[in-house]
Amino acid sequence: KKAEAAAKAAAAAEEAKAAEEAKKAEAETAEMMAKLQKSMQEDLEVQKKKEAEEKAAGVVKKAEEPKPEEVKKKRLSAWQERARQIKAVQEVLAPMGLYPATMIDGIFGPMTRKGIQEYQKQKGLAVTGAISQELLDAMGIK
User: What's the confidence (pLDDT) of residue 94?
Assistant: First the structure.
């Protein structure tokens, strides 16, 4: 009975840890979304100010055709971009045996966090278990 109780306690602790990791991932995603939204708002304000200044100066500007890669990038939502990054990280981790190749799905969960932590240890990076610019650079992900 003691062994069974200890096993249940260990399973509950692991479940609590996984829930904690999921909360951290959600918080990181929310922070990234807030930064992205702020950046987009700042870009919009700069563009509006520039257009107002040009209009006041009487500058007539011919509309430029956006480059296809810029259009495509703007069309991706922040969530899609985050999922793309997660999937790319999983694809780097899988051949190293740090993430199951059959589980690559673009969803940040406990297995992704553990794989990232192990990768960070192996590469001498700060072990956070989070997707950071440092991690993306180390993995060669743009």
Answer: 97
Question: In this predicted model, what pLDDT tens digit does every residue of 81-123 receive, in sequence order?
Answer: 889 899 999 999 999 999 999 999 999 999 999 999 999 999 9
Tokens of 139: 């993995």
Task: Give yes or no for a contact between 92 and 47, defined as CB atoms under 8 angstroms apart.
Answer: no
Cα–Cα distance measured from residue 84 to residue 76, given in angstroms and rounded to the nearest whole number:
10
Categorize the per-residue pLDDT at 68 as very low, low, confident or very high, splitting at 50, 70 and 90.
confident
Q: Are 115 and 98 in contact (CB under 8 A)?
A: yes
Question: Cα–Cα distance between 113 and 98 in angstroms, integer?
Answer: 10
Phi-psi region of 61 (alpha: psi -120 to 50; beta: other; left: phi over 0): beta
Per residue, the 3-state secondary structure of the chain, as one string, reads CHHHHHHHHHHHHHHHHHHHHHHHHHHHHHHHHHHHHHHHHHHHHHHHHHHHHHHHCCCCCCCCCCCHHHHHHHHCCHHHHHHHHHHHHHHHHHHHCCCCHHHCCCCCCHHHHHHHHHHHHHHCCCCCCCCCHHHHHHHCCC
